[in-house]
Amino acid sequence: MSENFTAEKLLNTLVETLEKQKSGSFHVEVKANSMTSQFNKLFGREKPVHHILGGGKSADVLLWRDKKISAAVLTAATTIWLLFEWLNYNFLSLLCLALVLVMSVQFLWTNASGVFSSDRKPSKAPRLVLPKDFFVNIATAVGAEVNRGLRFLQNVSCGGNLKQFVIVVVCLWAGAVIGNWFNFFTVVYIGFVAAHTLPVLYEKYDDQIDNFVYKVLDQMQNQYRKVDSGLLSKIPKGKKLE
């Protein structure tokens, strides 16, 4: 009886030990996977994409939280771009046509309402009145963004970081090349479309994009090391002074 009890106790102890080891290895694996996933986030991102984009209504539009509003904004931007680029409208002609359309609607509203109403009194047509601070807020927002961009460029040029300086110069040179291919309005439209498509795609496929980007960066770093080592090996070294 004692021998059976001792064997059964030994077997139970062995099973519990194996379960603890398995559980411990599972937790270590989960922790390692979570650390790897956090490390592989693009540019060290720790917050959600919605929070990075501001977390307000603009972020909801960019991430297509309300598909009707996002589609309406993108459709309006595409329509404006087609009017200017494909139909060759300029801003003055388009503004005059829009004013003519608005005035015609108000004229018909005022006169037709008196004919069809029972008391023969014309109803007041709706009028468009912009808030007093509308243009002031736009100018303030644009000025703040311009000052932030200028501050960043001057910090790069005066910071002494050669790598960051070269990256910014290359990006500006690429912008100058793209400016030769397209006009300014088309570049703005491309950026607008990218802002309404890339964030939502990244939010949906962030793990795949992060892994792909880091693989590309690793390959670029390996190629850079090979080129750097090849160039450095060809540089003649001076004789050591005894």
UniProtKB/TrEMBL annotation:
It is a multi-pass membrane protein. It is found in: Endoplasmic reticulum membrane. Pfam families: Reticulon (PF02453). The keyword Transferase does not apply. Residues 58-242 form the Reticulon domain. GO terms for cellular component: endoplasmic reticulum membrane. The keyword Nucleotide-binding does not apply. GO terms for biological process: response to bacterium. Keywords: Endoplasmic reticulum, Membrane, Transmembrane, Transmembrane helix. This is Reticulon-like protein.
